[in-house]
Amino acid sequence: MDFSGLINDFGPLTVTGLAQGAIIALFALGYTLVYGVLRLINFAHSEVFLLGTYACLFVWGLFGLDQNSATPSVGPMLLYMVIGLIAAIVVSGATALTVEFVAYRPLRRRNAPPLAFLITAIGASLFISEVVGVTTHRNQTGVPPIIQARPLFTIGDTTVTNLQVLIILLALVMMFALDRFINGSRLGRGVRAVAQNPDSAALMGVNKSRVIALVFLLGGLMAGIAAVMYDLKIGVTRYDAGFLLGIDAFTAAVLGGIGNLRGALLGGLLLGVLQNYAAGLFGSQWLHAASFVLLVVILLFRPTGLLGESLGRSRA
Amino acid sequence: MRQVLARAIGGVAIIGLIAGAAACNSGSSSDDTASEGNCGYKLAFFGALTGSAANLGVNIEQGFELAIDQYNKSKGSTCIEVAKFDSQGEASVAPGVARSLVADKKILGIVGPPFSGESEAADPIFESAGIPTITPSATRVSLSSKGWKVFHRAVANDDAQGPAAAAYIKDNLKATKVFVADDQSAYGAGLAEVVKTKLGALVVATDKTEGDGKQADFSALVQKVQSSGATALFYGGYYTNAGIIRKQLTAAGWKGTLLGGDGMKDPGLSKASGVQAAVGTVVTCPCSPPEAAGGTFVNDYKAKWNQDAGTYSDVAFDAANIFLQGIDAGNNTTTKLNDYLKTVNYKGIANTYKFTETGELDPNFIKVWAFKFDSSGDAKADVEIKTS
Fold first, then answer.
1. Which chain B residues are Cβ-neighbours of A142 within 8 angstroms?
2. In which band, very low, low, confident or very high, does the pLDDT at B18 lie, cut at 50, 70 and 90?
3. A287 to B207: CB separation less than 8 angstroms, yes or no
4. ipTM of the complex in this document
5. Segment B81-124, tens digit of pLDDT
6. Residues from chain B contacting residue A145 (CB–CB below 8 Å)
7. Would you tell me which CATH number, out of the four given (3.40.50.2300, 3.20.20.140, 2.40.50.140, 3.30.70.100), belongs to the domain B159-285+368-385?
8. Interface with A, mutate which of B219, B226, B376 (most A CBs under 10 A)
9. CB A253 within 8 A of CB A31
10. Is B55 an 8 Å CB contact of chain A?
11. Is residue A245 within 8 Å of residue A46, measured between CB atoms?
12. What value does the mean pLDDT take over residues B44-68?
């Protein structure tokens, strides 16, 4: 164990961990939203994210950008960012809706048992991931350096870059907006109503199918933003990128309390930071193992996660 | 009933034909020995000619075929025939192909298999048939410890790379602070361990990562490298992880040199990291750059195949010539040829070859080169590393 290393690098490990955690948190929202309403783990959500990472690469490619391009100046950079975000959001949102319409809705109509949903979820996930794998020959694709990471300010001896600030801020803003939307808007009230009691909500005139579609769409939008942030931070994507980060995101959702939006944020940030601390203390090979030990320990004491398991129930 | 009878008769007939053919073979070849001066035999290439690994296989096959062509020209006839067997580089395909190879009794020697995985699958079959093999490129260390008498390796094995990489870091790079990391694979961890031991006090810190495809965020590793003050990072692993690590190191502003073994010698590294970030990355390889081969090989190869000689083309050319020289000296059975390989001391265009008891290249002739990624996005020959 390398305590001196952890103490020396504590600041930088925290900052990079928070940035990674912010991406995980945005990703985790999709799991939490769908679970909150349908009590269903949407395993295909990892591929909703995956297609987002490729969507922005694709549109950037249309502008002639690839991994060897030079970093653009501020004007074009903003343009590329906006276009990349839109592309990723559209593709991820559309994928999430497609999965709902193709893989889940027909089963719901037939009152299929929960196990059937689980199987179609895994099937949809594998299908999309494999299609991407085959079409990309399972090679990695490098991301164009849209944003050059530059030191923005320093706290003590910890340098914080513009990219890290962007990722963390964007995640916080999106979380806040989503939280307001679910807790403050009419549509959000519908979501909470269906989460609380689907049958009563339907009797009260809430269109259940529309709410479910909305929830998938919202999860997809958040995953799209997470995908662009991931591309910029990691710098490379490939066909199993969604699966890899999906495990972290799902863990974060459970850690914070699945079905709980604020829990997803807390779980994501906590997981990102703790993985980095574990890597600093024990070596990078313990990164994932440590996060699962933590998950088990926390669930032992708080079986419903840190903030409890509810979408709106506690604050309805 | 009639069908069964027909099959039985057919079967007997086929067996008879094969036996007859075999008898003819042995008879005619002994005649050839007397009359045509050790002609009428075949040398085989065994390796990938199609599939994802075909690039390397074709390099080797073309070098091999060129040697036989030149030999036949010097004899004025098709004295030795070329036989090609496409294993696709797959350990699952190789055994079936190997069985059809050993059925051809005119084959006296095999150049191949190029990869370690297919070698483990196919070499036992060549061993039981007693056909001598020379692999120009399979570098897994354990291949020579299986007790195969027909196994010969014309290049250094993976063990040679660690000391060479350490020597390069010390002598060429002159780095005084080195960070060593690996991906916990048998290949990567083994390589990193040797580098660590050889560098001793120059190693300021170490870390381990997950294997390929199991980790994408290396920010903890990047942070450790930065705060260690190291100017060189040796990574025992493959190009997949190395490309991401190089990219994230560059993004974090680390300006040191990334080094690795031949597992990182692939354009895939710069495809992930971007060419600019990859420039200057150094990989070692127990191979010589083909353009450094002696004699007229480089021009001859280009003239025959209308492309430049690739990695291991030169070694395959030498391997074929070792067999040809042996056959020319009258070693016209597989047993004699295999015994001949034990005594060979052959100076070829890429190297001088002498084999140890276990079929390894004599340690005195081991060559390891450093290759450096340049702005083409691929690793180009840098210097030959002196380990002794």
1. 243, 247, 271-274
2. low
3. no
4. 0.91
5. 999 999 988 889 999 999 999 999 999 999 999 988 899 999 99
6. 251, 274
7. 3.40.50.2300
8. B219
9. yes
10. no
11. yes
12. 90
Structure tokens that stand for B182 in this block: 């690996």
Rounded to the nearest 10 degrees, how much is the dihedral formed by the CA atoms of B342, B348, B350, B356? 10
Interface test with B, best of A23, A248, A285 (most B CBs within 10 A): A285
pLDDT band at A16 (very low <50, low <70, confident <90, very high): very high
- Tokens encoding B124: 């036992």
What is the predicted pLDDT for the residue at A264?
94
Q: What is the pLDDT of residue B6?
A: 60
Question: pLDDT value at position B276?
Answer: 93
Answer for the pair A264, A248: CB distance below 8 angstroms, yes or no: no
Query: What residues have CB less than 8 Å from B11, skipping those under 6 apart?
Result: none
Among A6, A57, A67, most B C-beta atoms within 10 A, so best to mutate, is A67
Could you tell me if A290 lies within 8 Å of chain B, comparing CB atoms?
no
B151 pLDDT band, cuts 50/70/90, is very high
CB contact under 8 A, B184 and A5: no
Backbone angles phi, psi at B233, to 5 degrees: -120, 115
> Is the CB of residue B229 less than 8 Å away from at least one CB of chain A?
no
The domains spanning B39-157+290-355 and B159-285+368-385 adopt the same CATH topology: yes
Q: What is the token pair recorded at A282?
A: 């024990």
Q: Do A20 and B276 touch (CB under 8 A)?
A: no
Binding-face residues of A in 118-147 toward B, CB within 8 A: 139-142, 145
Q: Residue B325 belongs to what H/E stretch? A: helix B313-328
Domains of chain A: 3-137+148-301 (1.10.3470)
For residue B190, what pLDDT band results from cuts at 50, 70 and 90? Answer: confident
- pTM, 2 dp: 0.82
Domain ranges of chain B: 39-157+290-355, 159-285+368-385
Indicate whether B23 pLDDT > 60. Answer: no
List, for residues A81-123, the tens digit of each pLDDT value: 999 999 999 999 999 999 999 999 999 999 999 899 999 999 9
- In CATH terms, the superfamily for domain B39-157+290-355 is Response regulator (3.40.50.2300)
For a pLDDT cut of 90, what percent of chain A falls above it?
75
Cβ contact (<8 Å) for B205 and A5?
yes
A279–B220 CB contact, under 8 Å: yes
Provide the H-helix boundaries in B180-291.
186-199, 219-228, 239-251, 268-273, 275-278
Half-sphere exposure of A279 (CA within 13 A, CB side): 32
A120: distance to nearest CA of chain B, Å?
A: 25
Compute the radius of gyration of chain A from its Cα atoms. Answer: 20
| Nearest-CB residue to A139 (from B208, B227, B268) | B268
